[in-house]
Fold this sequence. Notes:
The chain is α/β, with parallel strands linked by helices. The protein contains eight helices and 14 strands.
Amino acid sequence: MKVLVIEDEDELRNVIVSSLEKENFLVESAADYTAALDKVTGYQYDCILLDIMLPGGNGLSVLNALKKMKKQENVIIISAKNSVDDKVNGLNLGADDYLAKPFHLSELTARVKSVIRRKSMNGQNVIELNNVKIHVDDRLLYVNSEPVSLHRKEFDILAYFIANKNRLINKAALAEHIWGDHIDQADDFEFIYSQIKNLRKKLKDTGAQLEIQAVYGVGYKLIVP
């Protein structure tokens, strides 16, 4: 799962990024309004942590831009300004949650996981598809009640496919979502082929009743019989 941290305080931003990375999130960051707008315009995220007061602009303007672009990212406002007006304006513009500074990192992580589950996983932490069970927060996969070992990226790919089951996933969108915006520097998608090949083999070898189908020249689709 991919998170964008928009926060101008260097120390706080670095602490948040480090904390979320320890929870196996792919994390990107922006320190000012211009960088934040560039990120949300060019890329997609599972959750955006958004400070209101930013150098060069206002976080609510970023939120308004997301709304105009009709993007569906989960947004949690994090701000030292704990006024009712800020909270109401943010929620009216489409924010999913509001957390006032100072806050505990454990609470922030819990809020991030909660909004992602609500929108991407229908509020569920444990998802069952036929004989396959995935524990989202614990990053565990079971097939026929037996644990299946997955590498970090393999789990991220499977979770992304499950959140978008029966939908065609473009290779570029998958790469950017799992590996981040630095994927622009890659020459090809060979690393994706390798990861998906390994994941498909593990699903087949364990008898999983779901299949990742390749759509030639376009991408992949998770099929659930």
